[in-house]
Amino acid sequence: MSLTVAIDGPAAAGKGTIARAVAAHFGFAHLDTGLLYRAVGRRVLDGMDPIEAAQTLRSEHFADADVLRMPDVAQAASQVAAMPEVRAALVSFQRAFARRQGGAVLDGRDIGTVICPDAEVKLFVTATDEVRARRRYEELLGKGQKVTLEEVAADLARRDQRDSGRKTAPMTPANDAQLFDTTTMSIDEAVAKAIAAVEAAQG
Ligand code: CDP
Ligand code: CDP
Q: Which of 34, 63, 86, 125 lies at 20 to 30 Å from 41 by C-alpha?
């Protein structure tokens, strides 16, 4: 069967972790849509025009996720993501991915609202600012990045504000999304809850 799971929410809330685990559990394909915007941001940092970077984006540009997870790329991603032409250039790839046979999980900011408004399962994952900053800080430290907790918190706050304040596809829960506050949840608890939500949709 072809079932689409849309997972949205602010930075470092746990969207990707939940999306990967749900996809592995059900054998669905997974697309981290943030990587598309990060790849465009990376190309813009290298001197390219943002719209051209989005229109000529190919999968090889977002194959190396580790390079794209750096905070400077995240800021560039959030800036290009506010441009309607950039977003428009990335829509058809995401929709085609969502429609694949066998099920798909997409995580991002506008999956349940714009990319897949008909998704069978929509989750909006959140956690407090402090918890999200600490999670991302520990993740970056684990990758050998020299960052402070304050820098990480400022990066997330700036992006969340830009992502929810933009005119095109702002970050906001879909009317029919289930809200998932993971502040006090372990990864296993959050994943189990998400799997239960998908099972409920499968009937
Ligand atoms: O995809 P998103 O930016 O929303 O977040 P993520 O990359 O899945 O999670 C950010 C970090 O928080 C990762 O290092 C996860 O392992 C961690 N995490 C956690 O500690 N507890 C959770 N319930 C979910 C994620
Ligand atoms: O992992 P994290 O949640 O920190 O960020 P991400 O999901 O990789 O997204 C990076 C940036 O891309 C976000 O701050 C948004 O500006 C943008 N983005 C978006 O606008 N729409 C999406 N569907 C996914 C990401």
A: 125
6 close to ligand 2 (CB < 6 Angstrom):
no
Q: Could you tell me where the beta strands, DSSP code E, fall in the chain?
A: 4-8, 29-32, 104-108, 121-126, 178-181
Q: Is the distance from the beta carbon of residue 52 to the nearest atom of ligand 1 less than 6 Å?
A: no
> Nearest bound ligand to CA 40?
2
Which residue type does 145 have?
A: Q
What is the chain's pLDDT, residue by residue, as a tens digit (203 residues)? 689 999 999 999 999 999 999 999 999 999 999 999 999 999 999 999 999 999 999 999 999 998 999 889 999 999 999 999 999 999 999 999 999 999 999 999 999 999 999 999 999 999 999 999 999 999 999 999 999 999 999 999 999 999 999 999 999 999 999 999 999 999 999 999 999 999 999 98
Domains of the chain and any CATH numbers: 4-192 (3.40.50.300)
Distance CA 1, CA 5 (A): 13
Cα of 70 to ligand 2 centre, how many Å? 12
Is the CB of 11 within 6 Å of ligand 2? yes
Instruction: Indicate which residue's Cα is closest to atom 25 of ligand 1.
Output: 14
Cα torsion for 23, 64, 171, 115, to the nearest 10°?
-60
ipTM of the shown complex: 0.98
